[in-house]
Design goal:
Oligomer: single chain
Number of domains: 2
Radius of gyration: 20 Å
Number of strands: 2
Distance between the termini: 27 Å
CATH topology of the largest domain: Cytochrome Bc1 Complex, Chain D, domain 2
Order of helices and strands: HHHHHEEH
Shape: globular
Number of helices: 6
Largest sheet: 2 strands, antiparallel
Strand order of the largest sheet: 1-2
CATH architecture of the largest domain: Orthogonal Bundle
């Protein structure tokens, strides 16, 4: 569909829209669902975000999907029903692991205290399941 009123419109400044903004615009104009905007995970609480940044967790892990290592939501999804998961994940955070998620190595994080590793593990396990495509 062409919009003849806009066909000659040119701009020197590129316009960028965020996904939530586009979803909101579609819902207003076309009655489209804003489910994309609603599926974004909430930001971690400030103390957890500080731990994630301080220890470099978000350099390799996305909140939902894989970056280098699995996303936090993917980890939670795998271990959701495992009652032994919190201490085991805390141990993996501190001691590292290999082979759990393929050939990617989770390096040892020896500067993370046991208490911080427990906080991170419990937060990771509290993440909602990743949305399926």
């Amino acid at each position: 569909m062409r919009f003849s009123a806009l066909s000659g419109l040119q701009t020197k400044v590129p316009v960028k829209f965020s996904t939530p903004a586009v979803c909101a615009l579609l819902s207003i104009c076309c009655g489209a669902s804003t489910s994309l905007a609603q599926t974004a995970p909430p930001a971690p609480p400030a103390p957890v975000m500080d731990l994630l940044r301080k220890n470099g967790c978000i350099a390799c892990h996305g909140l939902v999907h894989k970056q280098v290592g699995p996303g936090f939501a993917q980890i939670a999804d795998r271990y959701r029903t495992d009652p032994e998961a919190p201490p085991r994940l805390a141990e993996k955070i501190r001691n590292g692991s290999v082979g759990t998620w393929g050939r990617v190595i989770m390096p040892r994080q020896s500067l993370v205290t046991e208490a911080d590793a427990r906080v991170l593990a419990i937060w990771v396990l509290s993440q909602p399941s990743p949305a399926t495509k």
